[in-house]
Amino acid sequence: MKDMLKIMRFDFLTAADTGYFPAVFLAALSVSGAFLFGPGCAAALILTSICFILPLTSVAEKSEFHKLYGILPVKRKNITRGRFLYIFMLHFIPEMIALLLLKPAFTLKAYRILPNQGSASLQMIENAFSSEFRSPCMIIFTVFSISCFAFLYMEFTGQIFGHENDIKSIMVLLLTVTAVVTTLTALGSHDIIQVDFEKIRNIKTLTAGISLNTLLFMICLLLGEITAGKVSAKEI
Amino acid sequence: MENILEISGLNKSYGDFALKDISFSLPKGYIMGFVGQNGSGKTTTIRSILNMAKTDSGKISVFGLDSVNDTIEIKQRTGVVFDSLYLAEHLTAKQIEKQLKPFYNDWQSDEFFKRLKSFELPDNKKVGEFSKGMKMKLMIAVALSHKAELIILDEPTSGLDPVARDELLDILSEYIEDENRGVLFSTHITADVERIADFVTILHNGKVWFTGELNTLAESYAVLKGAEEDIPESVKEKLIGFHAYRNGFEALIKTDDLAGLPDSLEYEKANLDDILVYIAKEDKNERHAENNAV
């Protein structure tokens, strides 16, 4: 574990100078900002923030780190595990910051500082803000979880099959998700399976957040372990 | 003499290249030049020592420890300098120090910054903007800051200007003054080896062609010149890298085989460069002979 944390720290320090910290704040601000200006633009801003995270996961490829990893006094398996932990934390930190920033923005109904009060678009935002706080929180949990899973998956396939195949891997992932969702929807519409959406809606925000993050952490450990097993057999 | 590095019967093959029965040792307190043509297997051997490459058979021991089972302990005590910088190019030396520090039990920050100062390396400039010589010095500063007892350098002087090369060799000479340390120095610039090495190992086509003291090598071979018709029949097969010119021939010969040669043949001491060139020529001759036989 100590070695994994060392590698995670190493990756964070490498990324620090490539703009990690500005990116974290941008990610967090865009998420909270999204709720200032209404849920409509949330997706676009959240996606923008994820785009800032994207280059930070490829820090190792920027330098000849494969050589460094060969000479550092750390087990090769722990280097791989550490990188997966780094990717998880790369999402977990901005997720927490976004939640912290969202709370006051929501409580203070910050949209009221915007000009043109009473306009139709502001009315829409007001309606959105009059909903429960938990729904924007759920959006944050969901978006960061999806992003984190995608990056963990890309690291998994990238380390095993090469990062040059990242686009292919993401396409496979998207197609799989689309196929699963379509199948479930089709099965649901024919009453073959029944999804209790009411039950899902009633899940407590905190429970959902903890469950999603725990699930992701487990996926992170699992993918890290599988990748470490495969990669440690390869030569540097 | 206690060996700091010992390789015995190392075999490794991949594709159409193979390391065959590599065996040599480096005693404590000495510098070994590790030479050979490009593709002779120097880097693969170094990667095997560092457990970066898997071996088919053989044993590598560093500080008396097994290179596979004790790799972490070995890496704590070994400094490595590659031909290119393995550190994050967009960071400064100061940031790199912060990154590497937690990995080494004996890391000394004071020593690192002292070395940067003595090597005249700025600690606030991105290391990617350093010249090649500065990058080499930075990797040496890293190696010296965790009290490395063995420094392994893979082609560190290739691409360096003469002044930077000279500085690097001076640093290594100073490092080895502590007799508990060792340096394995791979290069194809033989002049560097002749300047600082005590021992030399020559690799050729994945095999050890010579290993031992540099002085012994220098005394063991000579370059023979003269007219081809003056070569006694019994000596012909002992010539290495025979090459006939319009006015005669040149070849490498063991000094032991010089006795009894006619006075018309001249010889001179072979330097390391000569030896490498004649080994390569011998290779060509053999291939030529094989082709003719076919």
Describe what this molecule looks like in 3D:
The complex is a heterodimer of chains A (236) and B (294). Chain A contains 11 helices and no strands. The model of chain A has no long low-confidence stretch (mean pLDDT 76). The two termini of chain A are 22 Å apart. Helices cover 77% and strands 0% of the residues of chain A. Chain A has one domain (2-231). Chain A has helices spanning 2-16, 20-36, 42-53, 59-62, 65-71, 76-107, 120-129, 134-161, 166-189, 197-201, 205-231. In chain A, α1 packs across α6 and α6 runs antiparallel to α8. Chain A has 236 residues and is mostly helical. By secondary structure, chain B is α/β, with parallel strands linked by helices. Chain B folds into 2 domains: 3-212, P-loop containing nucleotide triphosphate hydrolases (Rossmann fold); 218-293, no CATH class. Chain B has 10 helices and 14 strands. Chain B has helices at 42-49, 71-76, 93-100, 109-118, 132-145, 162-175, 190-196, 214-220, 233-236, 272-293, and strands spanning 3-14, 17-27, 31-35, 57-62, 65-66, 78-81, 150-154, 182-187, 199-204, 207-213, 221-226, 240-245, 248-254, 266-269. In chain B, the strands form 3 sheets. Chain B has a 6-stranded mixed beta sheet with strand order 6-7-8-3-9-10, sandwiched between helices. In chain B, strands 2-1-4-5 form a 4-stranded antiparallel beta sheet. A 4-stranded antiparallel beta sheet of chain B has the order 12-13-11-14. In chain B, α4 (109-118) packs antiparallel against α5. Chain B is elongated and about 70 Å long. The interface between A and B is medium-sized, with 23 and 28 residues.
